[in-house]
């Protein structure tokens, strides 16, 4: 494969040189993108004597589809700076990247640009906008976009149901499912993934069981591994671990690492150590280098104070050179994304941020808040545990948001891992103390903190 792209580049250089045949340049760049050689693609792109909108769209889409979301947005901004006018394809290509970064301000700008330039919002663009608003924390705007579409299809319905599920609005998602049925559209297996996710996040166990049954009985849809994953996650969250394990055993296919991690997480939350060890062993056999398994197992031991077992797991991780994904959170202020990691001191305003963190901790203490130090997975003194919790990345992001925005402004934070129980509890109180709505998107769902409570109703 690498040889073929090398040969293509040699022919390109010999036959075209650095001429201005835009089509051939685009083909060569597309070849690099398809081979995952993004550095070479960007280098060649930068050397192009003339770039068409197709050139820009190809690179933006390539970055976005391969997980390089920041790079996709950077190219989009560069495109604007060059005075090249985005078209329908550009907008559809960049919106998923904006959605993953949670940059609502930029997403709104793109939407406004599309409206101003009369870019037709068809089902494809409509679905991309619904997804963007949902993932950027503005699910009400996603609903509005859906309602304004000239025509809805299965994809737009599925996107809306999935967005509502992500925000814990389970009953709204179910009402959308019913409306989809009334409209005459036949639900697909993707539709049921959204509905089952909604039931999982909303704690609607009976409803989840019923929809899982209806899939096959009414619509002749064979459950895929994703549907079983939703069910295991739903039962695990509800503490029905025996039923979750039974369902796992009855699956017609082998469970994947996502299902096993969901059940292992539930074991950690509900302190079911023996089942957790069984699931962990299966996960290690399936994906021996999957760091999340070792981290969850270590966390489970730490939560019950079994530090000897914690040490054994961490030693095994060291021997296998398995590393934990570093936690990070980011917040967008005036269109600029600021990213933070735990105990981050790299930001130019670090002194102000840490001063705010101290102020937050003091106000929490005066309000009677007591830190949940079981969330600190280190065998250290209680005071050190409280200090460690104070500097989690999502708290640093919120502190930066508080010093960077006007009083009363909404704060939107994106986190790459699941929010810990102590940060979740403290965020509720912070929202009340500072009179702010704080929206946190973690790896699994959205949390809307307002007036001392969370939209998830502490079921997460």
Description of the structure:
This protein is α+β, with helices and mostly antiparallel strands and about 450 residues long. It is built from 23 helices and six strands. Strands 2-1-3-4-5-6 form a six-stranded mixed beta sheet, covered by helices on one side. Helix 12 packs antiparallel against helix 13 and helix 20 crosses helix 22. The longest helix is centred in the C-terminal third of the chain and has 17 residues. The radius of gyration is 24 Å and the shape is globular. About 0% of the residues have low confidence.
Question: Concise description?
Answer:
It contains 23 helices and 6 strands.
Give the topology.
Elements: H1 2-15, H2 22-34, H3 38-47, H4 53-65, H5 69-81, H6 88-101, H7 104-116, H8 123-135, H9 139-148, H10 154-166, H11 170-182, H12 189-202, H13 205-219, H14 225-237, H15 241-250, H16 257-269, H17 273-286, H18 291-303, H19 307-319, E1 328-333, E2 336-341, H20 350-366, H21 382-390, H22 393-404, E3 411-415, H23 421-433, E4 438-441, E5 446-450, E6 453-454
């Amino acid at each position: 494969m690498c040889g073929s792209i090398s040969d293509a580049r040699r022919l390109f250089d010999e036959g075209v040189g650095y001429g201005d045949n835009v089509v051939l340049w685009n083909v060569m760049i597309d070849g690099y993108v398809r081979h995952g050689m993004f550095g070479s693609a960007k280098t060649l792109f930068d050397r192009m004597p003339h770039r068409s909108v197709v050139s820009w769209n190809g690179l933006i889409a390539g970055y976005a589809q391969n997980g390089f979301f920041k790079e996709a947005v950077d190219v989009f901004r560069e495109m604007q700076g060059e005075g090249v006018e985005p078209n329908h394809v550009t907008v559809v290509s960049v919106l998923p990247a904006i959605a993953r970064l949670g940059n609502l301000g930029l997403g709104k700008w793109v939407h406004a640009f599309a409206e101003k330039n009369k870019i037709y919002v068809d089902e494809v663009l409509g679905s991309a906008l619904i997804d963007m608003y949902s993932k950027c924390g503005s699910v009400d705007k996603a609903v509005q976009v859906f309602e304004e579409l000239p025509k809805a299809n299965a994809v737009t319905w599925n996107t809306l149901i999935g967005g509502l599920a992500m925000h814990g609005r389970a009953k709204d998602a179910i009402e959308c499912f019913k409306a989809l049925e009334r409209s005459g559209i036949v639900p697909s297996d993707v539709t049921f993934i959204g509905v089952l996710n909604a039931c999982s996040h909303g704690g609607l166990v009976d409803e989840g069981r019923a929809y899982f049954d209806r899939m096959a009985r009414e619509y002749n849809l064979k459950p895929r591994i994703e549907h079983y994953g939703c069910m295991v996650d739903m039962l695990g969250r509800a503490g029905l671990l025996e039923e979750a394990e039974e369902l796992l055993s009855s699956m017609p296919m082998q469970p994947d690492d996502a299902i096993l991690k969901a059940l292992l997480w539930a074991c950690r939350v509900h302190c079911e150590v023996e089942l957790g060890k069984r699931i962990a062993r299966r996960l290690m056999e399936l994906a021996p280098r999957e760091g999340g398994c070792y981290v969850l197992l270590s966390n489970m031991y730490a939560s019950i104070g079994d530090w000897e077992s914690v040490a054994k797991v961490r030693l095994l991780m060291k021997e296998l050179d398995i590393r934990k994904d570093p936690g990070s959170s980011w917040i967008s202020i005036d269109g600029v994304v600021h990213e933070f990691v735990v105990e981050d001191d790299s930001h130019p305003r670090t002194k102000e941020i840490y001063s705010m963190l101290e102020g937050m901790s003091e106000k929490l203490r005066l309000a009677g808040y007591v830190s949940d130090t079981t969330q600190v997975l280190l065998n250290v003194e209680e005071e050190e545990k409280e200090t460690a919790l104070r500097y989690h990345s999502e708290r640093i992001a919120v502190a930066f948001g508080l010093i960077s925005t006007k009083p009363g402004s909404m704060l939107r934070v994106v986190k790459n891992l699941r929010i810990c129980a102590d940060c979740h509890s403290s965020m509720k109180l912070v929202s009340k103390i500072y009179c702010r709505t704080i929206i946190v998107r973690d790896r699994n769902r959205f949390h809307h903190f307002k007036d001392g409570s969370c939209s998830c109703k502490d079921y997460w």
